[in-house]
Design a protein that fits this description.
The complex is a heterodimer of chains A (473) and B (289). Chain A is of the alpha/beta class. Chain A folds into three domains: 128 residues, Alpha-helical ferredoxin (Fumarate Reductase Iron-sulfur Protein, Chain B, domain 2, Orthogonal Bundle); 164 residues, FAD/NAD(P)-binding domain (3-Layer(bba) Sandwich); 152 residues, FAD/NAD(P)-binding domain (3-Layer(bba) Sandwich). In chain A, 35% of the residues lie in helices and 17% in strands. In chain A, the strands form five sheets. Chain A has a five-stranded parallel beta sheet. In chain A, helix 3 packs antiparallel against helix 9 and helix 6 crosses helix 9. The longest helix of chain A has 20 residues. Chain A is globular, with a radius of gyration of 23 Å. Chain B is an alpha/beta fold and 289 residues long. Chain B is built from nine helices and 16 strands. In chain B, helix 3 links the parallel strand 8 and strand 9. The longest helix of chain B has 23 residues. Classes of the chains: A alpha/beta (473), B alpha/beta (289). The complex binds flavin-adenine dinucleotide, iron/sulfur cluster (SF4) and FE2/S2 (inorganic) cluster. The site of iron/sulfur cluster has 14 residues of chain A, from helix 4 and helix 5.
Chain lengths: 473, 289
């Protein structure tokens, strides 16, 4: 029993909070908002854990990290051991500690949370990963086994990276094919620097590379070579598809063609991936007006609106047709957005976009909504209030209303089962698709979900690929 | 990194580059394009593939130096590298034996229509070529087009070479003369494509154009390249870039392409200033690294 405190004493310690940049300052820079817990705070927070006999937090974690075990290692100040413990289940702890919706996963079920605040599991995960990085304690596991079979991974987002890491550890020869010029998927082009510094991402991706995975960028599977060519001509015996859900939806209201109307994906790709924030030092431009509106209530919407604020928007509105409670974004991001001065227009639905004589956006017309009966998703359905239409002056409209899978591979791969929504159909245990040597996971099968679910799928697929190839393929 | 194997100036502003990329060379078809990023911090720009050599593993592109990125690209020399080169992207041109097809290239658009003309000719079509430009020095690929077309017409806006006038004038003349035309491919500046579409529409001649909206990724992930075709939103990089000319909203495309025009100018000015400084430094004998 490493924890010196009695359970009653543990419960008296309040939940510890991260040290954060001051909101008025941070909404003008791209540095990370949160500095996380320092060692002292982390030790205190770790001591709150009750080390339950039946640690339900583990069931709440999609990749089943042994949470009490790593927390106990923190109490023993064996931070490197704690990081290794997490890595047994999750190869990207510095990322997950930052972006996972812990409040809906491990922390929502935490026993301590029944009467008090739950253990800050995510913050502890991040502390451990950051400590390990800062002190250069990471040692790449040595892969001893060698299996002379090649596996192709398509897409270098969290699903692909995780599947690759697992297969390399088993001894396979793994190549990741990535369409863009850099790795990481949404982690690089979508999630902004102020939430997930690129340096952290680079370190985590490099670990997968050092482990032995080969990464080829600028390779669009379906175009540069088809999936069948990977198998028939390039000698890959199994393929994992982790191509995500990158194709943005548009509202299909009038005025979407005006300059200044962008999908959140385009906006974030320009700013994060192409570094438009540094224009004209860099070459990809972006134009953000004094007043802007972002449509949506998910993480993408939060990231877009907070990015626009940082690029100089004086009024940054977040327009969402349901109420704040229904917003799918991480709670922490919603709070951070509010602190940074984002104006939330809840129960508001965009009707049309108005342009000026130069074909630039000048306003958006909206309508107020009220909540009716719950719909299929269990959320109360928003209903328009008649006569409540009004106009908001804005120079940009950024749409973050959801994404669907990129169709290139589905369109160029005969015999691959695809749903009506464009997602690839898999067996949800083995992640195998309609083709026995092709597996899939992440946003490609869910159509826009979470990093950790993508990682779960990558792991599950790796296990099935191993089983499949051991049976002789 | 992708190596430039060969460079050839076709005119003052138009340069042909042969770039090493065996996979793209092998897979590319007429109508495909590549996305190129020249240097770190650079933008990704789409360029149509003009030709390829599977044995040598090379892809030919023809670039008109207009903005910063194209100027930078055209300033590279044999043996230099571009940082990123990805493709082949877009839906290839559907190649069938239609009968007689007119292939029209305006300015650097000739480089884009050339591979299509070649593929159509290989598929057994009678190919009539019309290429045009503002003036004689901007006419490119005359010889190559001459080789793949059964008949080639040339126009210049200022009359400095061949027929004075626009490619669309030549097209209308052919139609009026009663030439049997089963299809038209028109690629070039947007107004040229728009006029060609207007010429063929009353005659019900199937006409295709290749659109050049602003692109970021070129793989269907941003929607920046969205165009309206037949009243529907299409992503040019994955649904196109070729579309039925009679369905395209050209005015909208022209407007959307102006979105960043002032910033593009800033970027170019800054680049040219930088080049000037380098040049002056080299003149003053300080040497440039
Ligand atoms: C702005 C934003 C913020 C988000 N915030 C959070 C958050 O805080 N927490 C959270 O848990 N989730 C968040 N999400 C969701 C999360 O990022 C995704 O669920 C997750 O990244 C999905 O991982 P993936 O590996 O399936 O796909 P992706 O991360 O989308 O990666 C797919 C990769 O495949 C590549 N690819 C696509 N097609 C091809 C092809 N044909 N050939 C080769 N490569 C190809 C793509 O270029 C991309 O790099 C956010 C999403 C966005 C857009
Ligand atoms: S449920 Fe909460 S208190 Fe119990 S072991 Fe998990 S983190 Fe600790
Ligand atoms: S260029 Fe991004 S979707 Fe076409």
């Amino acid at each position: 029993m490493p924890n010196p405190l009695k359970p009653s004493e543990r419960m008296k310690i309040p939940r510890q909070h991260s040290i954060e940049q001051n909101p008025e300052e941070r909404n003008r820079n791209f540095n990370e908002v949160s500095f996380g817990l320092n060692e002292e705070l982390a030790l205190l927070e770790a001591k709150r854990c009750l080390d339950c006999k039946n640690p339900v937090c583990i069931d709440g974690c999609p990749v089943r990290i042994d949470i009490p075990a790593f927390i106990n290692l923190i109490i023993e100040k064996d931070y490197s051991g704690a990081a290794d413990k997490i890595r047994e289940a999750n190869y990207l702890p510095a990322i997950c500690g930052r972006v996972c919706p812990q409040e809906d996963q491990c922390e929502i079920v935490c026993i301590l949370g029944k009467k008090h605040d739950p253990v800050a599991i995510g913050k502890l995960e991040r502390f451990v990963a950051d400590y390990e990085m800062a002190n250069k304690l990471f040692k790449s596991p040595v892969v001893t086994n060698q299996i002379d079979k090649k596996v192709a991974i398509v897409g270098s987002g969290p699903a692909g990276l995780t599947c690759a890491a697992e297969l390399v550890k088993l001894g396979y020869k793994v190549t990741i094919f990535e369409a863009l010029h850099a790795t990481g998927g949404v982690l690089r082009y979508g999630i902004p620097e102020f939430r997930l510094p690129k340096e952290i991402l680079d370190i985590e991706v490099n670990r997968v590379r050092e482990l032995g995975a080969e990464i080829i960028t600028n390779f669009v599977v379906g175009r540069t070579a088809t999936l069948d060519e990977l198998i028939d001509e390039m000698g890959y015996e199994a393929v994992f598809l982790g191509t995500g859900a990158g194709t943005p939806n548009f509202m299909e209201i009038s005025g979407e063609h005006f300059s200044g109307v962008l999908s959140a994906n385009e906006f974030l790709t320009r700013v994060n991936f192409m570094k438009a924030y540094a224009f004209p030092e860099t070459d990809t431009p972006i134009k953000i007006g004094k007043q802007i509106a972002v449509i949506g209530g998910g993480n993408t919407a939060m990231d877009a609106v907070r990015t626009a604020k940082r690029l100089g928007a004086e009024k940054a509105y977040l327009i969402y047709r349901r109420s704040r409670k229904e917003m799918p974004a991480r709670i922490e991001e919603v709070q951070h957005a509010e602190e940074e001065g984002i104006e939330f227009l809840m129960l508001t639905n965009p009707l049309r976009i108005v342009g000026d004589e130069f074909n630039w956006v000048k306003a958006i017309e909206c309508q107020k909504m009220e909540l009716g009966e719950p719909d299929d998703s269990g959320r109360r359905k928003p209903i328009p209030i008649k006569g409540s239409e009004y106009i908001i002056e804005v120079q940009n409209v950024i749409e973050a209303i959801g994404q669907k899978p990129n169709p290139i591979i589905q369109a160029t791969t005969p015999g691959l089962g695809v749903s009506k929504r464009g997602t690839v159909v898999v067996d949800n245990k083995t992640m195998v698709t309609s083709r026995p040597n092709v597996f899939a996971g992440g946003d490609l099968i869910h159509g826009g979900a979470t990093v950790i679910l993508a990682m779960h799928d990558g792991k599950a697929a790796a296990a099935s690929i191993h089983e499949y190839l051991q049976k002789g393929g | 990194m992708y190596k430039i194997i060969k460079k050839q100036k076709l005119s003052d502003t138009i340069t042909k580059l042969v770039i090493e990329s065996p996979l793209v060379a092998k897979k590319r078809k007429a109508g495909n394009f590549v996305m190129i990023r020249v240097v770190e911090g650079g933008e990704r720009i789409p360029i149509t593939i003009a030709d390829s050599d599977i044995e040598k593993g090379t892809v030919t592109i023809i670039v008109q130096a207009i903005g910063k990125t194209t100027k930078m690209l055209c300033s590279l020399n044999e043996g230099d590298f571009v940082l990123d080169f990805v493709g082949p992207l877009g839906e290839p041109t559907p190649i069938h034996n239609y009968g007689t097809v007119v292939c029209i290239g305006g300015g650097v658009g000739t480089a884009e229509v050339y591979p299509i003309a070649k593929a159509l000719r290989d598929a057994g079509n009678e190919v009539i070529g019309i290429i045009g430009a503002r003036s004689k020095d901007l006419i490119i690929l005359e010889k190559e087009m001459g080789e793949v077309c059964n008949k080639l017409y040339i126009t210049t806006d200022d009359g400095s070479y061949a027929r004075k006038g626009f490619v669309s004038d030549q097209l209308l003349e052919l139609i009026n003369k009663g030439t049997k035309i089963d299809g038209v491919y028109a690629i070039g500046p947007i107004p040229m494509m728009q006029v060609c579409a207007n010429v063929t529409k009353p005659f019900g001649i199937k006409t295709y154009v290749s659109l050049n909206p602003i692109m970021v990724d070129g793989t269907g992930m941003c929607g920046g390249c969205r165009v309206t075709v037949g009243g529907k939103m299409k992503f040019a990089c994955v649904d196109g870039p070729e579309f039925d000319a009679h369905q395209v909203d050209f005015d909208e495309l022209i407007m959307r392409n102006r979105t960043y025009i002032d910033l593009e100018k800033t970027s170019l000015e800054k680049y040219e200033e930088h080049i000037c400084n380098l040049y002056e430094k080299s003149l003053s004998g300080k040497g440039v690294k």
